[in-house]
Specification:
Blueprint: E1 8-13, H1 16-27, E2 31-36, H2 43-47, E3 52-53, E4 66-69, H3 75-84, E5 89-94, H4 109-116, H5 136-152, E6 158-163, H6 164-169, H7 175-182, E7 192-194, E8 197-205, E9 208-213, H8 217-226, H9 241-246, H10 248-260, H11 264-273, E10 278-279, H12 284-288, H13 291-295, E11 299-303, E12 309-313, E13 318-323, E14 343-346, H14 352-362, E15 366-371, H15 398-403, E16 407-411, H16 417-428, E17 432-435, H17 441-444, H18 449-455, E18 460-463, H19 480-487, H20 489-492, H21 508-530, E19 533-537, H22 540-544, H23 549-558, E20 575-579, E21 586-590, H24 594-604, H25 616-621, H26 623-634, H27 639-648, E22 653-655, H28 659-662, H29 666-669, E23 674-679, E24 683-688, E25 693-694, E26 697-698, H30 712-718, H31 723-731
Parallel strand pairs: 1-2, 1-4, 2-3, 4-5, 5-6, 14-15, 14-17, 15-16, 17-18, 18-19
Antiparallel strand pairs: 6-25, 7-8, 8-9, 9-10, 11-12, 13-19, 20-21, 21-22, 23-24, 25-26
């Protein structure tokens, strides 16, 4: 892809964060000059091909370059980067953000997961919370940094701060918002994703474990049929998700015998062929052997200086089709659109697609979300049978209300000829369309790419299929959990020797949303050069693979299949999550250097004071004893106090924050990461901003999420309809502001 042709990037990467940001921009066509500290025989071969290798990468952009770095926060680095930011755009990835109390706190991926809210809801409620196994935090931060760089590339010089902690908090599934709405913590539920999602679950089968992600009612009905018990749908024990959660062991008594008769790959294909989201929980060798990824030619080859060759992930997006060129319309009427703003039509549902619209809104776009009052965004939540319409349950979804901030919302029944025509008219003057319908749906509605591009040849259209539009699994469906599972990540998360484990944030969704945002911005930049519209495809699985690239490369390098190890980090003893005073309170600690061990041993004393433990190999041999002594010490005091004591001595540590703790965590609370919004009927709550700071302020979308059909009349009036015509559309059922009796999410 040459979408970012002409964009020149200088990268100085100490970690995968800046390296991944530079790699992403390079995949979209930017010219990248890279100096890295990454191992050229390992991850560096993938993320920094052809880069100069230096343990202390130079901050040396040329005139006209954009600079991306994850340099440690020091006085010297800050002075240098602030000076460079007077003539360059600089994106600086920092652990906890500049000018915060944690600005220079020592940290590791493990402690950042703890601080950033990615751990407390993962694992068994009777055991310690679990973290991801590698540097996924740095990849997520690098993705935010690439997005920030693309968004600000034409805005002139300046310093952008991309805190890793904010990158993590912004990609939780809005649990901190849920806490404010409902007043309870989510907690951990072992094999289940969440207490409210009993059919998003990892269960044993004949040869391992299968991930079933039946989040929607139709999927539950199909699951009951496939397991041989269609009567369960009418069983009052399982009438609603809450009922199924309350009778979860009764439900498993039906599911487990059926699963035990089938292998995970049999179940995967069976469920997917019936459009139930599922993951076979492949290990990394199986991911590398995926027929779907092979058919789509999703792999590239990276070669190391010594001649090793690795299969590594390829581009995260594809240009499927182009239209135009066409000149920018001169003097076109604004119609329903805000003057001078980027015009975006959001047809998507759930998280991945709507997150693209939300990001663009935060960057200043005018985003109009189209739903139908007969088939609205399923993230509003399904209506319970016989519910009281006065409760307005479809307006009380914390996830919908979070990711759709900054948008206007209209309703149009796209299956009705008049609804389709109005959508066509609106899209005819749009810059961007976002959609994540099942394959073929838009085409059957008469809103496929060919139709839209013929009407608007400058249109950028984004599609986000789970597995891509080609290949043997092209029709398969997925939520973020599905993408996690099929990438191999779930096989790496878990207790030592335990089953594969889902993360708490359906991580595939926010990653796909951010990649989709970057793809759209890149295509818009290309359109400025050539006047062409483009159809973009961001297959969610392919875009997620870099987050498991450490494990993919390690397996190819050593031949040893990576496995779950709990929170232990190889070569770092101690490293783990330890109990703290209080109910379900924990602290993460990781020792990386001899100096950190000395500081920890001096503070804790007891068995840790043994001089023989100064040797890393000796500590590894006595890891269990060290963990036991350390756990006894941490259990005597609050997690925050333990972390403060250790951080003051240079030892990486952090409380394992609950979603409630995130709301008052100083690196997020003080700089304005949490943004207050008043929205009917739920009232005032705090919502997360983007993980990008410009001028010391986080970027955030303005205005609450739209109520169903809230802006229909205004938008249709902007298209030239008078009040009588607008009323006629509502009478005919083309529009509506309340769910129809047959409505389904």
């Amino acid at each position: 892809m040459e979408l970012l042709a002409g964009l020149r990037v200088c990268a100085a990467s100490h970690t995968p964060a800046a390296a991944y940001a530079a790699w992403l921009l390079g995949q979209f066509g930017a010219e990248v000059r890279h100096v890295t500290a990454l191992d050229p025989e390992g991850l560096g071969a993938f993320l920094a091909p052809g880069a100069a290798v230096d343990p202390d990468p130079r901050l040396d952009p040329r005139p006209g370059d954009l600079l991306i770095t994850d340099a440690p926060v020091t006085d010297a680095a800050r002075a240098r980067l602030e000076a460079l930011a007077r003539g360059h755009l600089v994106a600086w990835i920092t652990p906890f953000g500049l000018d915060t109390p944690w600005e220079r706190a020592p940290s590791t991926s493990l402690t950042r997961y703890a601080a950033g809210g990615w751990m407390h809801q993962v694992g068994d409620p009777a055991r310690e919370p679990l973290a991801p196994p590698g540097a996924q935090d740095l990849f997520v931060a690098g993705l935010w940094a690439a997005l920030a760089t693309a968004a600000f590339a034409s805005r002139g010089p300046g310093l952008l701060d991309v805190p890793v902690a904010a990158a993590l908090a912004a990609t939780t599934i809005y649990d901190a918002v849920a806490f404010q709405y409902f007043g309870r913590l989510r907690g951990r539920v072992a094999e289940r994703y969440a207490p409210t999602q009993p059919t998003i679950v990892t269960l044993p089968c004949a040869d391992g474990f299968i991930g079933i992600h039946a989040a929607l009612h139709g999927m539950w009905v199909t699951l009951a049929q496939l397991c041989g018990h269609p009567e369960l749908v009418d069983d009052p024990r399982f009438a609603s998700p809450a009922d199924r959660a309350a009778n979860i062991r009764d439900l498993d008594a039906y599911l487990l015998p059926w699963l035990a008769r089938h292998t995970r790959w049999e179940l995967y294909h069976l469920l997917q062929q019936h459009r139930v989201c599922a993951a076979a929980m492949p290990t990394v060798d199986e991911v590398l052997a995926s027929p779907q990824l092979a058919a789509r030619e999703a792999w590239r080859t990276a070669e190391t200086p010594s001649g090793r060759r690795y299969r590594v992930p390829g581009p995260p997006a594809r240009v499927v089709a182009e239209a135009g060129p066409a000149p920018e319309p001169a003097g076109a009427a604004a119609g329903p659109w805000r003057t001078e703003a980027l015009r975006v039509v959001d047809l998507s549902m759930g998280w991945a697609g709507p997150l693209v619209g939300h990001v663009l809104a935060a960057l200043g776009a005018d985003v109009i979300k189209i739903e139908s009052h007969t088939h609205f965004d399923w993230w509003r939540g399904s209506r319970l049978p016989g519910d009281d319409p006065g409760l307005e349950l479809h307006e009380r979804s914390h996830v919908f209300n979070a990711v759709n901030r900054g948008k206007r919302g209209i309703t149009l029944d796209l299956a009705h000829p008049r609804g389709r025509d109005l959508a066509l008219e609106l899209i005819g003057s749009a810059d961007v369309v976002i959609e994540n319908f099942a394959a073929g749906v838009l085409e059957r509605l008469g809103l496929g790419w060919e139709v839209l591009a013929a009407r608007n040849p400058r249109l950028v259209m984004l599609r986000q299929p789970a597995f891509g539009s080609t290949g043997p699994e092209a029709g398969y469906v997925g939520f973020g959990n599905t993408i996690e599972g099929m990438s191999g990540l779930s096989s790496l998360v878990g207790y030592d020797g335990g089953p594969p484990t889902m993360l708490a944030n359906a991580c595939g969704d926010p990653v796909s949303g951010l990649i989709g945002s970057l793809a759209v911005l890149s295509a818009l930049r290309a359109r400025e050069r050539d006047g062409r519209g483009r159809l973009l495809e961001c297959a969610q699985l392919e875009g997620f693979l870099p987050l498991v690239s450490e494990a993919l490369i390690a397996y190819q390098r050593t031949g040893e299949l990576p496995r779950s190890r709990g929170n232990r980090r190889p070569g770092h003893t101690p490293s783990g999550v330890y109990p703290a005073a209080g109910d379900d309170c924990w602290v993460a600690i990781e020792v990386e250097t001899p100096a950190q061990w000395v500081a920890l041993a001096d503070l804790v004393g007891g068995p840790l004071a043994d001089p023989a433990l100064a040797d890393a190999a000796a500590r590894e041999a006595r890891r269990d004893a060290i963990d036991g002594a350390l756990a006894a010490w941490t259990a005597a005091r609050p997690a925050a106090e333990t972390a403060e004591l250790l951080l003051a001595r240079g030892v990486p540590a952090a409380p394992v924050h609950t979603e409630a703790d995130l709301l008052t965590f100083a690196p997020l609370d003080g700089p304005g990461f949490w943004v207050g919004e008043e929205r009917e009927p739920v009232g005032f709550h705090l919502y997360p901003a983007l993980a990008i700071r410009s001028g010391g302020q986080y970027l955030a979308a303005q205005g609450p999420a739209p109520r169903l059909g809230q802006h229909t009349a205004g938008v249709l009036a902007g298209l030239g309809l008078d009040a009588a015509a607008i009323r006629d559309l509502e009478t005919a059922g083309v529009t509506g502001s309340r769910p129809a009796l047959r409505a389904r999410a």
